[in-house]
Specification:
By secondary structure, the chain is α+β, with helices and mostly antiparallel strands. Helix content is about 25%, strand content about 20%. Strands 2-1-3-4 form a four-stranded antiparallel beta sheet, with helices on one face. It has a three-stranded antiparallel beta sheet with strand order 6-5-7, covered by helices on one side. A hairpin with a 6-residue loop joins strand 1 and strand 2.
Length: about 190
C-alpha cells in the first residue's frame, strides 16, 4: 500500500471515530412532564407539587427518572448509590414558568448549564429548600433579589445544601406562602 493510500485510510478512520464520538456525546431530548410522572424519592405524582421539577435520563433507558424538585434531581447525581450512567439532566426553567405552582411541562433546560438560586424564601416540591433553576443569570438574580438567596452554577452547588438539612433559616421567610408568588413578568419572582 502506498503512503498516500495509507494516509487516506488513516484520515478516514479518524473521521469515523470523530463521528462516533459525536453520536455518543449527544444528549437525548427532555421528556414532557405528564400526569404519569412519579417522583423517584417520594413515589408521588410530580404534578402534585409546586416549584421546579427535574428529570434524569440514563444511557440506554427508554424513559426518564422524575423528581418533584430540582434539588432532588441534583441530589441524585451526588449520591454514591445512584446510577452514574447519566446521559442527560434536565430541570425546569423557572424564568419561563407560568407560575410557581405550575412550572411548565416542557420548559426543561440542561441542569449543568443552569443558574440556581439557593437559600430563597420559596419551598420546593416536598416543602423543602429548593435550588431554583434558570437559563438566564439575569432572571436568577432578579428572583434572588425578590425572594432572597444567592445565585450559583451547577458546579458550585454546595453539597451540604443539596444533601443537608431541610430546616428553613428564620431570615429566609419560613412563614411566607409560595402560593402568593407569581412567576410571570420581568421579575420572575
Amino acid at each position: 500500500m502506498s503512503h498516500t493510500g495509507l494516509a487516506a485510510l488513516l484520515v478516514a478512520a479518524l473521521l469515523m471515530t470523530g463521528c462516533q464520538g459525536e453520536e455518543q456525546t449527544s444528549m437525548p431530548a427532555p421528556y414532557a412532564l405528564t400526569a404519569e410522572a412519579m417522583g423517584r424519592y417520594c413515589g408521588m405524582d410530580v404534578l402534585e407539587h409546586s416549584g421546579p421539577k427535574g428529570q434524569v435520563i440514563l444511557d440506554k433507558s427508554p424513559e426518564p427518572i422524575w423528581f418533584s424538585s430540582a434539588r432532588d434531581t441534583i441530589a441524585f447525581t451526588m449520591l454514591p448509590e445512584e446510577p452514574k450512567n447519566i446521559a442527560a439532566i434536565y430541570v425546569s426553567d423557572m424564568g419561563k414558568a407560568p407560575s410557581w405552582e405550575k412550572p411548565g411541562p416542557e420548559n426543561f433546560i440542561d441542569a449543568r448549564t443552569a443558574f440556581y438560586v439557593i437559600g430563597s424564601a420559596l419551598r420546593g416540591g416536598m416543602g423543602v429548600q429548593e435550588a431554583v433553576p434558570f437559563s438566564s443569570k439575569d432572571d436568577a438574580a432578579a428572583f434572588a433579589a425578590k425572594n432572597s438567596g444567592q445565585v450559583v452554577g451547577f458546579g458550585e452547588m454546595p453539597e451540604s445544601y443539596i444533601l443537608g438539612s431541610d430546616a428553613v433559616p428564620m431570615d429566609h421567610g419560613a412563614d411566607r406562602d409560595p402560593a402568593n408568588h407569581d412567576m410571570k413578568g420581568p421579575d420572575h419572582g
